[in-house]
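Bench log. Compound arrived from synthesis this morning; before running ITC I wanted a structural hypothesis for how 3-methyl-2-oxobutanoic acid sits in the protein. Inputs:
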Amino acid sequence: MKWTIRKFRQCKGGEPLGLVTAYDYVTARFAARAGVPLVLVGDSLATTALGHSTTLPATMDAMIHHAEAVRRGAPDALVVGDMPFLSYATVEDAVRNAGRFLREAGCDAVKLEGGVSKAPAIAALVAEGIPVQAHIGLQPQSVKSTGYAVRGRTPDDAAALGRDLDAVCEAGAFSVVLEGVVPEVAAELTARAPIPTIGVGAGSGCDAQYLVLADLLGLGDGPLPKLAKSYAHLADDAVAAISAYMAEVSARKFPDAEHSY
Ligand code: KIV
């Protein structure tokens, strides 16, 4: 059953949905087979799949290339393309680049970071028929100016988040990511928002959650960020499998008769 934006919006106030990122056909197939309703082709591509230390090096061309593959792997899920750093610096850039996600990669929607300051871009995209997922709170693309500071720790900051939320809702976003927000504030924002909130490091009070698939599957070899949890340790399995293969080749056990013509 194909997920639609309208259907996704109905998760507001219901049982929370588990959502993931994916970066290629293989990981999108995992998500599709598990029945994930919405898959984000996140700019975390840069860190988790391309080995960079921040998300800033993700480019539009790289995002499109990976989003096309995710689309093929998860035909029934909503596929959201994450607008990379500087791809929506102006409203014109935002419309042109968001259009590429829909036209070239077959995405259903785009996501972009920013609240009040990005409301004009969100409104312009929505006016062109491009569904937008907003992203407020901790914004990794602003790491050079703000760091990775948790948001909502003071009443003033909680009020600023409220203004960001109101701005993206008024601009027409169909959902909003709350990243790195203290749980009490995220729950208040969720109660205030007419659209689904998706938490990342924002407690369990949101309408849905994102987890980066590489973290969920245990594909990395470094420590996880506090907001992430591994439900499998596939990197360890992969290393063990490759080591077993190499040992069998050395011992002339592979290929054996069964795997030879
Ligand atoms: O790129 C990403 O992984 C994100 C998170 C919100 C999941 O933007």
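What the model suggests: The chain has two domains: 5-230, 233-261. The two ends are 42 Å apart (CA to CA).
ITC booked for Thursday regardless.
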